Amino acid sequence: MTETTSGPARGSRAKGSKASKGLRIERIHTTPGVHPYDEVEWASRDVVMTNWRDGSVNFEQRGVEFPDFWSVNAVNIVTSKYFRGAVGSPTREASLKQLIDRVVKTYRKSGEENGYFASPADAEIFEHELAYALLHQVFSFNSPVWFNVGTQQPQQVSACFILSVDDSMESILDWYKEEGMIFKGGSGAGLNLSRIRSSKELLSSGGNASGPVSFMRGADASAGTIKSGGATRRAAKMVVLDVDHPDVEAFIETKVKEEEKVRALRDAGFDMDLGGDDITSVQYQNANNSVRVNDEFMKAVETGSKFGLRGRMTGEVIEEVDAKGLFRKMAEAAWACADPGIQYDDTINHWHTSPESGRITASNPCSEYMHLDNSSCNLASLNLLKFLRDDDLGNQSFDAERFAKVVELVITAMDISICFADFPTQKIGETTRAYRQLGIGYANLGALLMATGHAYDSDGGRALAGAITSLMTGTSYKRSAELAAVVGPYDGYARNADAHKRVMKQHSDANGAAVRMDDLDNPVWAAATEAWQDVLRLGEKNGFRNAQASVLAPTGTIGLMMDCDTTGVEPDLALVKFKKLVGGGSMQIVNNTVPKALKRLGYLPEQVEAIVAHIAEHGNVVDAPALKTEHYEVFDCAMGVRSISAMGHVRMMAAAQPFLSGAISKTVNVPETATVEEIEEVYFEGWKLGLKALAIYRDNCKVGQPLSAKKKEEEKKAEPVAEKKVVEYRPVRNRLPKGRPGITTSFTVGGAEGYMTANSYPDDGLGEVFLKMSKQGSTLAGMMDAFSIAVSVGLQYGVPLETYVSKFTNMRFEPAGMTDDPDVRMAQSIVDYIFRRLALDFLPFETRSALGIHSVEERTRHLETGSYEPSEDEVDVEGLAQSAPRQSESVTESTPAVKIVEDAAAPAPKQAHTNAELVEMQLGINADAPLCFSCGTKMQRAGSCYLCEGCGSTSGCS
What we know:
alpha/beta; Anaerobic Ribonucleotide-triphosphate Reductase Large Chain; 3 domains; 10-stranded mixed beta sheet; 3-stranded antiparallel beta sheet; 28 helices; globular
């Protein structure tokens, strides 16, 4: 993408050295002389966001301007979260153009001031390319950039912070203050408490020390108070303790004991639900806890030997414990309450680029950023699905060349941001400017793998994920070395040069040793190999501008901003998704990646249509018509009938970890039935596979969760009530008149011939069906005759035709196969054919289209235009459950699904407002996620944190 025009320059101050002529910027997407804004259609939208708990409007801004291809959810979140200025005032931002300009122009200005560009023309190309990529949702910066850059307030760009605390009251009180200031700004922080002496050691005055666990109480209360005051997101924090700390057992048990307290208080009648009046009495709930284990400990676990706990002041062993027993207690605690997680100290520091400046002792709250104490990291994530190409022959490829160019562009921008950024404390500012830690990553990996026909838990899926991650980090460090030639290496590079180059060689070696699988990942591996060769060559010559380049963050809010189907490194949550519509409506759709995956796997359009219809009705692929059982795994998700195993998640993390500077934000979900032994296995295998950190969550392990509201309702229903008079309503049969209009159709299914006569009421509406098979007297003919009578009676008693269609289409039995009907080329059975034909003849377009049934003319239109709809006035065919009146909305792709249902069609069923709630309804479960503080909807996991799909609020980094 770019090249430098002179050799390396010395120094890496915030203002940068201007000894070089700067970077030459190459165009990726833009056209000379045309601004990216002029190449898209813009639309005016009204953003009205309500609180689902009470229906009150918690945000409203009308007439905002966005590209017409942006979804309602993305528009809502960006408008409510990122637009600056008081709502209703002239200074309020009202267009995506204003938001992007505010950020991009600041980056360009700082880049020019600090000597990054060879000429003003290069600076303009940089600005236009950055604007294009943001406009088209190719990537996004983390939230603090959108909050702060280009405003009058401090321009904080980092989302991730690591603090430090020493064994003194002054340091402990500084910790409380620094953490509080970070929480106040909406960010999170992590730190390691292992320098604080244990409760088994003496103070200089002779008394016993309090120990780190006692000081955790004060920090936890502070975090809870700041969360309550701000009410925009819970305080995000990570607390780490080394496994050789004498108080490690008490640390492991902190949350387990609190869960026992919750149960006791709940049974005594106190309100212990999340957000309940009495839950605040529970301690240690505002932090993620992790134990930092080393290789010595894990080998002791492996061999069943003793392990020494060391005093903090002398370093001497003051107690020996059974390593397996301590490891078992960690697993038991994680089984009981999801804490503590585990961090693998020696692995982390083996990949440390700056060990001469200090060890890596902690992480940010979501566990992806791991570097020096008192430092920060700004994040950006690429939308992987934007780089998937489909050629005219239907073949797919990952655009590795364009991906690498975008990585270079984004890394350049991220490094520029450190030049003008503000930081919450002086120490963090000094460390970050000296080491310039960056965290480029990606989102939509799960969607990309499914769209390319790869199972998430498969060798092919892991190979593609590893190749993309390797190319991303290799390209990032290549650009970092090029930047070092322009504006100098990072200040701490000279003393860490050997270690940094050693880690680069480790990445390169891992790239060379990785397994190649198929035509999709091989070209990406080749590009990554070339990038790592450039890294070694340029790094030897120039050094590096950044001590860290890449992480895999949760991508919560920014994932919604980019309209991603999946966050971070996560698989898809479920195959059927919840979608908001322009005008306030909502609908459920089958993921757009499902048809792409089926096409990649070689299924015909008619088969794709039938499989998608099955998924829309059942929420999974089990027994879907024509779908081979060996392809089921491609559609496995995080939740559902076929959920990905715990080790499937761990193996995917292991595929990406060798190619990341930092770590991966991810929680490994296990079912409620999982055993302590299974959690031990996950933690042990994480160490064996070279992960840096791991967290476990067992379904329903938390007591304080939003379940009791439903339980209370059920209990209330179960209470005896006064006897009431029961009025029984009976259906009335509406017989057809003597003369009735009808259609007779001859058909052939799999060689079996037959005739169907369908008679209607005079004022329209099917009321009677007669089926005659060619072989009179046969069992099949008799059964079909009886079946048609039963259906006819049901129709006359008011059973809707669409109910029969949804129940009997895709039913499989012989005879089945090819038909002589051009509109229904394949049938799974005679019953499947009959009801598809009846739907085409008697159901309106929007109803049967939502059921996934289309004529040959409509399918032809879809292939030509991407839509089944005959005109723009028809109903969107993506929907299977529409919760409000439909207004026009631009969609990029239309996918057949099942069943549009108007509000009046059912007596107020439970309504989903997010994908998490939709999955709950489909599976009949209740997720343990908290309710969003802003809008009241159920959040869902994103990495190690939680994300609200309703308003974009998160509980951690993004």
